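Lab notebook, entry 117. We have the chain sequence and a SMILES string for zinc ion, and the next step in the workflow is to get a structural model of the bound complex before anyone spends time on docking refinements. Request logged below.

Task: model protein plus zinc ion, output structure tokens.
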Amino acid sequence: MGGLKRRKMKKLKKKLICKNCETTETLENVFYSAVTRILTLQIPRMRKKDGLHIYPLYCLNCDYITEWAADPFNVSGNAIEGIEYFKTFKINNKYKKFFYYTKNNLLNRGYTKTEYI
Ligand SMILES: [Zn+2]
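Result returned:
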């Protein structure tokens, strides 16, 4: 009892950073908070050379997309606290569409720290 919960909580302490404006949120906020300033999607693109899954994060503070991938062992040598960052660019129509639902659904999250964990 409780052990799994604690492990999951620990994982969610990881942070995502907008590489344009340095806004930072914990993964817990990104996935569960209604007032998060960073959103991400579980829709990765795959890097061809090694199959790495790269995810987009959308910063609501500056409207930029930053691409990121989990790199817990810093294999890339570029990871910041277990996350490697790639391109940063102003959100375009493709990503606006991707994030539309998530963004508009934020207020329905009914955030509590333990509700989904
Ligand atoms: Zn930003």
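Notes for the group: Residues 18, 20-21, 23, 59, 61-62, 64 surround zinc ion (CB under 6 Å). Worth checking against the assay data. Residues 14-92+99-104 form one domain.
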